[in-house]
């Protein structure tokens, strides 16, 4: 046992085996949480704080065991077949069939790809997707992480957040509803909102009014998403369900009908044990 300068015993050093497992776990977590479809050797070294040679050695072992694999281009590391199989079995044991069945019914009923996503900080992680059977469709990408404001899932989570209510708009915050003597741009803060902030406020207000969020993809993508929040039973586990597809099929006149189906799917997932399990991934 070693003694610290203050005279108190210091923690026993970790064995090399335990340290290796901890480092490997950190790498696996970094790869799984990567928002860009995997991570490079340099990125993983920076994220975990491990030197490049250590990361390189551990990645070789993890790839050899099937826990990780290289991307087609070879420069990024992604979840391997063994890790994916472990994830599927874990989800299956905790109620994934119920979620998949609900998403399948939603995809069949709307003709579009249906997904469930979870909030992680200022991003949304897609957990499970069921693809549309249409030839032209959105390809759901489980494991992809996106900024909240760039997906219908995220807009729904912001608009109906019950913990901090970042998207809840008070009468004073409504467009044009700022304090009369503040001389501000409508948010009561004394500053003028940017066009992007104004557009976001309108999206949140519209979602709260409708009960579901609508967000068109980047210009030229031709995609539209529609989402509703899921009551997981815990204010700290925030989930939402969405459908995504071509704007040409998800036309304005269909929004209410599509929204009703998405809300019904979200309601049917309310309180399911799987929500708690998914929320911990």
Automatic annotation (TrEMBL):
Listed PROSITE patterns: HTH_ICLR, ICLR_ED
SMART domains noted in UniProt: HTH_ICLR
Top-level taxon: Bacteria
Pfam families linked: HTH_IclR, IclR_C
One of the GO BP terms on file: negative regulation of DNA-templated transcription
Domain (HTH iclR-type) ranges: 18-81
InterPro entries from the UniProt entry: GAF-like_dom_sf, HTH_MetabolicPath_Reg, Tscrpt_reg_IclR_C, Tscrpt_reg_IclR_N, WH-like_DNA-bd_sf, WH_DNA-bd_sf
Protein name per UniProt: IclR family transcriptional regulator
Organism annotation: Streptomyces shenzhenensis
